[in-house]
Amino acid sequence: MNARVRDTLLVAGSANLDFVVRASHVPAPGETVLGREFATFPGGKGANQAVASARAGGVATRMLLALGNDGFARTIEHSLADAGVEMQVVRSVQPTGTAFICLSDDAENAITVAPGANSALLGNELSSLQGVSHLLLQLETPLEAVTAYALAAREAGVQVVLNAAPARALPTELLRSVDVLVVNEGELAAITGHHGSVAECLALLDCPCVVVTLGARGCCARQQARFFLQSGFKVQAVDTTAAGDTFCGALVATLHLGQPLPAALRYACAASALACTRLGAQSSIPQRAEVEALLRSDDRHAHPDEHVLAAYCGLV
Ligand code: RIB
């Protein structure tokens, strides 16, 4: 395949309609919390990441997803089309995936997903990888299919990026096919089976590039033997839903555009910070111009806290 015609970023993964209720706090097991406002938003880790890629601008973004034949599906398709994502939809007899989210006043959340149609995204649904530079995967669709797609992409010379969320242990054959692994600290612990520092966990992974998101702190990445740190951008967070998805989509889009890893980490951190300032999943994902404005304003300030981040990660 001619590398010059690889102009597409392909996302294969989940799409959900999110049912969100705001409450003072996320209920503990057995607790009932009287919430306040309720709203629905297009979501799902895969679809959120596709929207983040498309909104990064200049990236032809395609998504392989499975939806039911219902009104929820049409809401999701409308949101993806509006963002400029080209869709390849597997139509399932199961209802479109849904997610039930309690959003607390301190911007944290607890999410339960009913996968529904997402379960119909099987290993044989991946069509041609012609023209695809990067394949972005998550773990809200069947693991066998995620593994099959990663193996096919590796075979075709496509860069495989896995956001290993929700957290679970990974089969070795999947991990071996991944070029860039993106995880949060919980997912890193689940994959490595280790609960030490970020640096200790990273040392246990064979993957060429691993990016660990650290919430408001920022992120830490290891590419081969080199480490990179990016401090978080300070914002007034109202809803952290899809912050990780925004990071993933923005990161891969920026890499696809030929940026080096440190620049891609910086862009992705800024995009995910902005996503925390608005309600909802896809509704919160910023356009490139907004991210660039935040990056420009940040240029005026040094990041004095990078040594704090290095210490947090166990790098000093
Ligand atoms: O990562 C956030 C997403 O997780 C939500 O949009 C929800 O649908 C679940 O998939």
UniProtKB/TrEMBL annotation:
Q: What is its main location?
A: cytoplasm
This protein's superkingdom?
Answer: Bacteria
**Top EC group:** transferase
Q: How is the cofactor bound?
A: Requires a divalent cation, most likely magnesium in vivo, as an electrophilic catalyst to aid phosphoryl group transfer. It is the chelate of the metal and the nucleotide that is the actual substrate.
Active-site feature positions? D245 (proton acceptor)
Metal-binding found in the keyword field? yes
Q: Which UniProt keywords apply?
A: ATP-binding, Carbohydrate metabolism, Cytoplasm, Kinase, Magnesium, Metal-binding, Nucleotide-binding, Potassium, Transferase
Q: What is its EC number?
A: 2.7.1.15
Q: Which InterPro entries match?
A: Carboh/pur_kinase_PfkB_CS, PfkB_dom, Ribo/fructo_kinase, Ribokinase, Ribokinase-like
Give the SUPFAM superfamilies listed for this entry. Ribokinase-like (SSF53613)
Record comment: activity regulation = Activated by a monovalent cation that binds near, but not in, the active site. The most likely occupant of the site in vivo is potassium. Ion binding induces a conformational change that may alter substrate affinity.
Residues forming the Carbohydrate kinase PfkB domain are: 9-287
- Compartmental location: Cytoplasm
What PANTHER family does the record point to? RIBOKINASE, SUGAR KINASE
Its subunit composition reads: Homodimer.
General function of this protein: Catalyzes the phosphorylation of ribose at O-5 in a reaction requiring ATP and magnesium. The resulting D-ribose-5-phosphate can then be used either for sythesis of nucleotides, histidine, and tryptophan, or as a component of the pentose phosphate pathway.
Into which family does the record put it?
Belongs to the carbohydrate kinase PfkB family. Ribokinase subfamily. Belongs to the carbohydrate kinase pfkB family.
Output this protein's name.
Ribokinase
Organism (species): Pseudoxanthomonas gei
Write the lineage as a comma-separated list: Bacteria, Pseudomonadati, Pseudomonadota, Gammaproteobacteria, Lysobacterales
